[in-house]
Write a structure and sequence with these properties.
- This protein is mostly beta strands.
- The protein has one domain (19-239).
- Helix content is 8%, strand content 28%.
- The chain contains three helices and ten strands.
- The chain has helices at 19-27, 213-218, 222-225, and strands at 54-61, 68-76, 81-87, 105-111, 114-120, 125-126, 133-134, 139-147, 150-158, 167-174.
- The strands form two sheets. It has an eight-stranded mixed sheet, with no helix packed on it.
- A hairpin with an 8-residue loop joins strand 9 and strand 10 (167-174).
- It is globular and about 60 Å long.
Length: 240
Amino acid sequence: MGVRSSVRTSALVFVVATLAGTSAFAQNDAAINTLKEHQTIFAPAAYWARGGGGMRISKVVDEDTQKLIAYKIYRAAAGAGITRMIWMDGRAHPPDYAAHTWQGFSTGHWEGSMLTVETTHVKAGWIQRNGVPSSDRARLVEHIVRHGDVLTLVSVVYDPIYLEEPFVRSTNWIENPTQQLAGVISEIVDEIADRPDGFVPHHLPGTNKWLKDAAREFGIPEDALRGGRETTYPEYRPRK
């Protein structure tokens, strides 16, 4: 299956973030992904379906009973390939102190023809590559349904640290029966020449010049973009 995806400029548009979320976003510099320590990190759980590259979904069954154990999803994309397991055998999620990973721990169940997946135990990462953060307490719920050769994935991110409201979005995948996926060879290189040793891209508070771009592009008051729940709903407009 294949997908096309894009990310707007440095905007918190449609993301109802907490004060901690807006602060982390404002201090983020997307160039952090050029650091050697970050180059081979594939998209975290909240973003896994939206990076470029193909996807293969296969069943894992018990050899004796042929009962479904899990769905295994392999993604081959720039930087790294990932294998994600969605457990379908009724197993419980691990305790809170269990290890957190980039893809987390996922269990699924069928609701009619729709597969619903819940993911916990994710590492702190991001839900948008422009710096909208997610914490290690985030929980991801996905609803996956197929219409003909189109697979629609609706994801809902709940994060008590960085989000005041759930973050909902959808992605469509198109079936490609002739697709062949290969392994991904990850390489670490110096992407930015002459960078000082130990430098970490960032913006100190009040120095991020890109924060005003979205307000100009969409014609939305700047405080409305980063006001959290209070500035999200229509009731905010009469006060402006």
